[in-house]
Amino acid sequence: MEIVHVYTKLRSEFGRECLFSDRPAELLVDVPPDPSLALQFIQKTHRDQAVQACRDMSEHQVNTERFESDSCGINHVEGGWPKDVNPQEMEQTIRFRKKVEKDESYINSILQLGSAMEHCIRQNNAVDIYQEYFEDEEEVEESQEPPSAKTINVFRDPNELKRTVTGLSWHPDGGRKLAAAYSCLEFQKTSRETSLDSYIWDVENPNRPEMTLKPASPLVCLDYNPKDSHTLVGGCYNGQIAYWDTRRGSQPVEVSSVEHSHRDPVYKIIWLQSKTGTDAFSASTDGQVLWWDVRRLSEPTECLVLDPSREGHLDRALGGVSLEFESTMPTKFMVGTEQGVVMSCNRKAKTPAEKIVCTYDGHHGPVYALQRNPFFPKNFLTVGDWTARIWSEDIKESSIMWTRYQMSYLTDACWSPVRPAVFFTVKMDGVLDIWDILFKQNDPTLSLKVCDEALYSLRLQDNGRLVACGSQQGGATLLEICSGLSTLQKNEKSLLAAMFERETKREKILEARQRELRLKERSRSEQSREEDTGRDDGDDPPDQLISRAETDFYSVVETETRRRRDREEQNVCEEKEVKDEDF
Amino acid sequence: MAEVEETLKRIQGQKGVQGIIIVNSEGIPIKTTLDYPSTVQYAGLIQQLVMMARSTVREIDPQNDLTFLRVRSKKNEIMIAPDKDYFLIVIQNPSD
Fold it and tell me: Which regions are flagged for Basic and acidic residues bias (chain A) (predicted)?
């Protein structure tokens, strides 16, 4: 059915004026609020919400993949000759040239250019604007810029399964090459696919190693021969020693026989100074230090068992983890052991008992690095557990200087070859610390986080500016140290000598005092032995001792954390105060 | 023609001048006082350098143009005068 509205109007009424009338407001609909509906609403907490009418944006980070660059030469062949001229034919080229020379524009432009050129040439001849005026003056004092170091290159392990960089050695001539030993030192973590190779890297090219060394078992350490830069000697994980000549390829020229080698991984191998330049010695955790002549690696020339009782018992021997040899003192050498003891030995002793001269007991864990100061050979640096210690040869009781306990384990250290007061340490949290003991003794002068994983090895180049550190994931990072930390400062040697002397004297005095006290104790205890029966500390049952040690430990940890928290709170309070002041 | 020769002789006679090369816009050396292989090398390398320098100057200010280029090195100085169709390259050793 259609809905239709019919509207009729008289014809005479079309166009008539509309007559509006007024009438009061009329209430049409009234809807009162229903309180029961309000109960269905839940009150929500007020919240500030910002609203902006703008386009949706999103943030995204992009990092390009490591790109491999390769240098190659381009052959420049002559081009540009017009098609009808053959560049090889002398006649045609000469004809072409003569034609150009007759060209009008050629003459004009050459005349113009010639005059401009002459002006500059005469200028050059008149005054040498590049003359050095202040050549004779001494170098101005280095501005006090903060110490810094920057990463130059990272050499990554090209294999899929990454191994730790356990040993590094710089090429002796100029240090353009770095040899790195790769092995997996974690117990039973090596799988069949891990590669056994170690590499020699060219400093300029991080994309590809310059040379591969292929031992029969992964190399734990290696060393370039300081006399002959083509030869290297390396210690393997299975205890063998291998000798390479880089001119002869990747396979070792000779490998020591398994029966006469070490029975544990060779942790350190160093070339010795000898007339033939072919002697090296190695240390391993099987308790032996073996001397080798690389011309005949079938058996060692000499052997020393690191037995502290000096009787040569292998089962009581301490495992060697680091070696130290200074070419200025060819008869003495030092071994750092797994048990934290450093042994100073004399090679030329007649009897094996006299070989071990003295021991220094200082660390709670293995002594991973051991090096004499190149300027003060009487003092040496050791690193192990969470501290780095500096010792003087004369004081056997304790080190003369030491750092405070760091947050993570120290794995390697070495002195700077140019500045006697600077040494470098690497830690298991991936931090490289540079210590300048003339500047600050409590903290490192510069602390750099090199990578996220642990750093295991460290080696400085002979010029003191480049340092290479190797990490657990097979990345060897090359850093350049700022000139402030790698140039000898004035009076540095004398200041450092004075510092070492002072510390040595302090230790000597302390030692003397300890001895005095001990003597007094002994004489007193002998006198009154019958009277004091059970009051000695040593008679306490071991449980009480343990519990006392525990409570001591926990109280120390608590005070330290409380002190830290207080310091943080103080910092936060200070910040808040500053903020309030702004308002 | 003779004026060109005279100009070049005058330049060559200046103190310290080691060599002169005239290269056309296509990189062909027209005239040179050095041996041929070095000339070819200079021509190729310097042309690229001039292109780059010129484009740099023009990008910074399009109204500007390169008039002269001097490359000072430890051992000598290479001066390049570019033109629309030709370059004049002079190698001088100005150690007094």
Answer: 520-536, 559-583
Q: Which of B11, B7, B76, B9 is nearest to A122 (CA)?
A: B11
**Domains (range + CATH), chain A:** 149-509 (2.130.10.10)
Note whether A97 contacts B1, CB cutoff 8 Å. Answer: no
CATH class of the structural domain B16-92: alpha beta
Determine whether the interchain pair A106/B86 forms a contact, defined as Cβ–Cβ distance below 8 Å: yes
Which residues does chain B have within 8 Å of residue A78's beta carbon, measured at their own beta carbons?
27-28, 40
Closest chain A residue to the Cα of B25, Cα to Cα: A80
For A53-69, how does the pLDDT look when each residue is reduced to its tens digit (9 = 90+)? 888 888 888 877 777 77
Which stretches in chain A have pLDDT values below 70? 74-80, 85, 87, 136-144, 312, 352, 529-540, 575, 577-583
Reported ipTM: the value is 0.82
Terminal CA-CA length for chain B: 33
Query: Measured between beta carbons, which residues in chain A are less than 8 angstroms from residue B11?
Result: 114, 117-118, 121
Name the strands in the sheet holding A466-471, side by side, starting at the edge strand that comes first in the sequence.
A149-155, A476-481, A466-471, A455-460
Interface test with A, best of B36, B86, B87 (most A CBs within 10 A): B86
Residue A562's alpha-carbon distances to A154, A486, A555, A557, A567, in angstroms, are: 40, 39, 10, 9, 9
